[in-house]
Design a protein that fits this description.
The chain is α+β, with helices and mostly antiparallel strands. It is built from 3 helices and 6 strands; from the N terminus they run E-E-E-H-E-E-H-H-E.
């Protein structure tokens, strides 16, 4: 395991994902949690999958910017959309799946595809999930 440069600390209270709350030790994150309507819950609050998707999208976007800078590739605009799904894998167990969609302006498709592959190789979220969940990645050039 690498030596940590930073450790995030979060606490979940209440009923966890069902009418719970998640907070960080620095109080910068303080959110109510709810089971989404699609899973039979009331909705109306965030859920762990949304938080994971937001973190992965931000991390992957940083990885894209980093590999592009290292390769001296410039583009005009970019965004990463992360989709994190949850579903039954049988025997009362649940698993995750993910899709990462990178969007670029000002570069060609081959360069965008190469940057996405390179970012997927270095992103900590991608490395943590590699081989553990189904992940698809793609790039779109506008």
């Amino acid at each position: 395991m690498p030596e940590n440069l930073y450790t995030a600390i979060a606490t979940a209270t209440g009923n966890g994902r069902a009418d719970g709350r998640a907070t960080t030790d620095d109080a910068l994150l303080d959110v109510e949690l709810s089971i989404p309507r699609e899973m039979g819950g009331p909705g109306g609050a965030t859920n762990p999958e949304q938080l994971f998707a937001a973190g992965w999208a931000a991390c992957f976007h940083s990885a894209l910017k980093s590999v592009a800078a290292a390769q001296k590739v410039r583009f005009t605009d970019s965004a990463v959309v992360a989709e994190v799904g949850i579903g039954s894998i049988g025997d009362g167990r649940f698993g995750l799946s993910a899709a990462l969609h990178a969007e670029f302006g000002g570069i060609d498709q081959a360069t965008a595809d190469q940057l996405v592959e390179a970012a997927h190789a270095v992103c900590p979220y991608s490395n943590a999930t590699r081989g553990n969940i189904e992940v698809t990645i793609d790039a779109t050039v506008a």
